[in-house]
Amino acid sequence: MSLNVPTALLERAEAGPVDDADFVACVRESLPYAWVVISGVVADLRADGGEFADHSVPPPSEAERGQLLRALASDAIRGGLERHFGVTLAFQNCHRIAAFTPDAVGGERYRAFVSPRGQLLNQSPELRDC
Question: Which domain of life is it from (predicted)?
Fold first, then answer.
């Protein structure tokens, strides 16, 4: 299961739309490692003042790897995080994550990161299990 949904939030979802703040809070509580990694990348992006920041440290365990995969593979979770932080997230493998400013999406650095070439260049024997 990806998220631990509190009963009250589940009841609101059953009744109709749920706002992003409640959804993102559920993500933050359910996927704490993914939250720390993604919020850290966003903090680095803002601190550097550039258009791009990334994280490439392998997760400490399969549980943390699973959190990143769930957060970034789910359109709803990824979209909620992107709206919350005001960035576009890009994902190359089980731990290489980047945050781009909205203006950088479509630019040279973004296109290189999300390209087949970028994916191939980011592979190594150590990463093939993810």
Answer: Bacteria
**Interior angle at CA 92, CA 86 and CA 95, nearest 5:** 85
> For the chain, what is the domain count?
1
pLDDT exceeding 70 applies to what percent of the chain? Answer: 93
pTM of the model: 0.88
CA 92 → CA 3, 10, 18, 53, 74, distances in Å?
Answer: 23, 32, 30, 13, 15
Give the residue carrying structure tokens 């190594």: 124
Question: Within a domain: residue 6?
Answer: no
Q: Could you tell me if residue 114 is inside a domain? A: yes
Distances (CA, A) of 19 to 4, 49, 102, 126: 17, 29, 22, 40
| Residue 65 domain flag | yes
Structural domain including 99 reads 32-127
Confidence bin at 120 (pLDDT 50/70/90): confident
